[in-house]
Specification:
- There is one protein chain.
- This protein has 357 residues and is α/β, with parallel strands linked by helices.
- The protein folds into two domains: 5-156, DHBP synthase (Alpha-Beta Complex), CATH 3.90.870.10; 165-255 and 292-353, Rossmann fold (3-Layer(aba) Sandwich).
- 34% of the residues lie in helices and 20% in strands.
- It contains 14 helices and 14 strands.
- The protein has a seven-stranded mixed sheet with strand order 5-4-3-6-2-1-7, with helices on both faces. A seven-stranded mixed sheet has the order 8-9-10-12-11-13-14, with helices on both faces.
- The radius of gyration is 22 Å and the shape is globular.
- 43% of the residues are buried.
């Protein structure tokens, strides 16, 4: 039975998330976050595994000035592991939350990726797609069996450049701030998490629709965290759309932590407690400052026959993201007053990410 390459990439991402070794291109890789002694030993049957990390993480560890590592993002960096760099030491290299507890790392040697460059990039893409710290152990694929093997091109295509979604279900959902509301559930074709659209009032898709793109935030939306402004933004947007003649649409996307996932967002919180701002916390983890995919929002709006939006946002990336997909976008200011726990967070979004606050 043959399996399409894109499905192999999804299967490889899932296997990596389960702590299994996967093959991608010329390499067999294992998540540095999930590896235990037995799994690492199984990977290292013929040779010592290297540790592949992102260029951003390598820069934090001052490895980017080595000739073999002197490549711009998104080129990963291969760190050779001498005998003294055991499982615990390798995890400290991969996870910046451990930096203060293990401040003296190295000296490390890197090697040029050469023919393994695409495979290393694809392995990092799989780790990100799986919601893991973007760091993997790696050996030549010929040396060890892998649970799943996928082509590099398929892994690098995650997520797809053109998202495809379909409506799975609809139901009436009266809300405290918007009693006239219908929820529309979307299932993405790539097998990822489901996303929601709240249809508040009776929005007319033939006219510019008042809309909000909201990325899920369990800590803010549900638990009432004061570290961010997500919860207040969500509820203020619902109320504003409910007051608007004709109503509008709120898209609720499962893209926690600007697309890095809930667990990595909590790691970023831990780094913020160590003094790093929200941008540096993400990049120290090896991610981009914002990993979200706004093609999903575009696909959902298109499925709802929307062509023009009045977008409730302070984020220019959302405006540009929808405009790039052919939507007519007018920005409607949407920001919350700072509090004692999120003032620095909001200032960072304004000063370093261009949010219009």
């Amino acid at each position: 039975m043959s399996i399409a390459p894109e499905f192999l990439a999804e299967a490889a991402s899932d296997a990596l998330r389960r702590g299994r070794s996967v093959g991608v291109g010329s390499l067999a890789v294992l998540s540095a976050e999930l590896a235990d002694a037995a799994a690492l030993a199984a990977l290292e049957t013929a040779s010592r595994a290297g540790l592949v990390i992102t260029a951003r993480r390598a820069a934090v560890l001052s490895l980017a000035n080595q000739i073999a590592a002197a490549a711009p993002d998104p080129e990963p960096v291969w760190v050779n592991r001498p005998d003294w760099l055991d499982l615990a030491g390798s995890r400290a290299v991969a996870d910046p939350v451990l930096d203060l507890a293990t401040p003296y790392k190295g000296p490390f040697r890197t090697r040029a990726l050469a023919a393994d460059a695409d495979a290393a990039r694809a392995a990092i893409a799989l780790a990100k797609h799986a919601g893991l710290i973007p760091a993997v152990y790696a050996v030549p694929l010929a040396e060890t069996p892998a649970a799943v093997t996928c082509p590099t091109a398929a892994a690098l295509a995650l997520p797809p450049a053109q998202a495809r979604v379909h409506v799975s279900s609809r139901a009436r959902l009266p809300l405290a701030a918007a009693e006239q509301c219908q929820v529309v559930a979307f299932r993405p074709a790539d097998g990822g998490p489901e996303h929601l659209a709240l249809m508040i009032g009776e929005p007319d898709p033939a006219q510019p629709v008042l809309a909000r793109i909201h990325s899920s935030c369990l800590t803010g939306d549900v638990l009432g965290s004061l570290k961010c402004d997500c919860g207040p933004q969500l509820h203020a947007a619902i109320a504003a759309i409910a007051r608007h003649p004709g109503g509008g649409i709120l898209l609720y996307l499962q893209q926690e932590g600007r697309g890095i996932g809930l667990l990595n967002k909590l790691r970023a919180y831990a780094l913020q407690d160590q003094g790093w701002d929200t941008v540096d916390a993400n990049t120290r983890l090896g991610f981009e400052p914002d990993e979200r995919d706004f093609t999903l929002a575009a696909a959902m709006l298109r499925a709802l026959d929307v062509k023009a939006v009045q977008l409730l946002t302070n984020n220019p990336l959302k405006v540009a993201g929808l405009a790039a997909h052919g939507f007519t976008v007018t920005r409607v200011p949407h920001d919350m007053p700072p509090g004692p726990h999120n003032a620095q967070y909001l200032a960072t979004k304004r000063d370093r990410q261009g949010h219009m606050l």
